[in-house]
Write a structure and sequence with these properties.
Strand order of the largest sheet: 6-7-8-9-10-11
Distance between the termini: 44 Å
Number of strands: 17
Number of helices: 4
Strand content: 35-45%
Shape: globular
Largest sheet: 6 strands, antiparallel, barrel
Length: 379
Amino acid sequence: MKKFIGFSLALLLLGVAISGCIGGSPTEVPTETTTPEEQGYTSTPTPTQSQPQGNQHSTTTTTPLDQSTTQTQTQTETQTSTGTQTQTEVEEAYWSPWNNEPIEVNGKEYKIVGYQVNYKVQPSPDSETYEYKIEKSVRKVKVHIYGMSLSGGKVDLGEQEVYEYLTVITPIKAMNMEDKLIFRFWLPKESNEMFLYPWDVGWLGFFSPMGSSGDFSGLEFEYMGEKLTITNPTPYKSGLFPYVNGNGDFMEEVSDDLNNLYMGWAAMINLALWSAWSDKNVLVPQHGSWSDGLHSWKWKTNPDGNVELSGMTFRVVNAEWNYSGGPENIDLSGKGRFSPKIPIPLYIEGRFYSKDPETGEEVEVYGEYELEDMKLEEI
């Protein structure tokens, strides 16, 4: 637990440092962009062989931009020595990670309603590597909501229609977890955060004695046949306390695994660094760097073929990043693959390192995950 608290504090420092730097400063090093002509990249690329990095989906660069990627074409005119004009078409696509907006494929719009990832985490260099399968889905359901009065009486608020965000964590090689752990989070409205993250320690705030604001209807944890259910009356009637049903003793048994899940996830996806290229055309190979003398980062993206998910084809981009924060003694590095039209990364492996300047205690976490399946629903 001490290590987990130290890691959480280091993440807080990292977030403050990055949020203060992302906006740029007078010492920012301009992003270096390689033109398509220099890289030999046009809208009809020359066939090359691509080697997947930790991703079992085969890729190829023998086809132009697939129809699943929203495409903007700009025309660049160049004047030759003979006075004739030539035009080069440059494909454009931009990535908005963790923003679950509709996906346009062949003129139709879809939304992601489910996905499955294979997840690995090594919480320290001398520990084992733990592995889990994580399945996420969202749907509308009806849930019976109860509350508690100030006198302790149970108040029945009837069935309410909610969005159920279902998370199923299946241990492959776990620390203590012996069976599937199922989370059901019930919200009165849709939430990107709840859907796109498999587990966030911040969600523990829902256990507050006064519940939460009107954005939370309830939750249910299920493990080894035991259930802990909490419903929050606040969205439906004020002045009541949350109602708790069941025994949550099993949460202690799985807490170490949940801590590891969170630490590995944060080591990979706590990447405000991605915003450094969020306004860049990722279908053109490019790289950039930034430094203020105390903090620095470098990044690189390179288009690399296609991937097929849900029977549809999407473009793939490789990415690498590296961050160093001297005052906070934090280093972050990783690499992965993403598709401009899919808000969930296809593959990531990352390393988080921090050292407490006062105690000298070190935290080093490695995480890896791969998107194995995705379910789309036509709008």
